[in-house]
Write a structure and sequence with these properties.
Number of helices: 6
Oligomer: single chain
Structural class: mainly alpha
Number of strands: 0
């Protein structure tokens, strides 16, 4: 009888521990997703900070202007496009790994950038393996748009 009570108590404690572990895992996953999203936004803000300090670049990233022909400006725009591609690809990757329910901001932003940033499109098109999240998203979106 005492052994039976011990076994039942042990099972109840084990069930409670499992429930608490599950609850804590959910909390930790939410924190990880939020942290990853914050890191991605920090990367994006760094790009926007650079654009703010060089206002002539704005239209090349958000206004649909083509990549400049002048060598120094071209180099600046394409270098920043590489950084932006890294930031957006990181955002897409972390959102996929640690999804935040109801948040599609990275996906939406990447699709807008496909339409407004030829420099980013050129960068990703030249090196699709470097930016797998962007490449696959843009390819899938192009297929559904046809």
């Amino acid at each position: 009888m005492i052994a039976s009570v011990g076994v039942v108590a042990s099972l109840l404690i084990s069930a409670w521990q499992t429930r608490e572990l599950t609850r804590q895992t959910v909390i930790n996953n939410r924190i990880a997703g939020t942290t990853a999203m914050y890191n991605g936004l920090e990367r994006l803000h760094a790009v926007d900070g650079f654009i703010a300090s060089q206002p002539w670049m704005y239209d090349h990233f958000y206004g649909g202007a083509s990549v400049p022909e002048e060598p120094e400006q071209r180099a600046r725009v394409l270098a920043l496009a590489n950084i932006l591609a890294d930031a957006v690809d990181y955002g897409l990757m972390t959102t996929e790994l640690t999804p935040v329910q109801g948040f599609d901001g990275w996906r939406d932003f990447a699709l807008v950038m496909f339409r407004t940033c030829p420099a980013l499109v050129q960068t990703v098109s030249e090196h699709p393996a470097w930016y797998p999240g962007l490449s696959s998203l843009w390819r899938a979106d192009s297929m559904t748009a046809d």
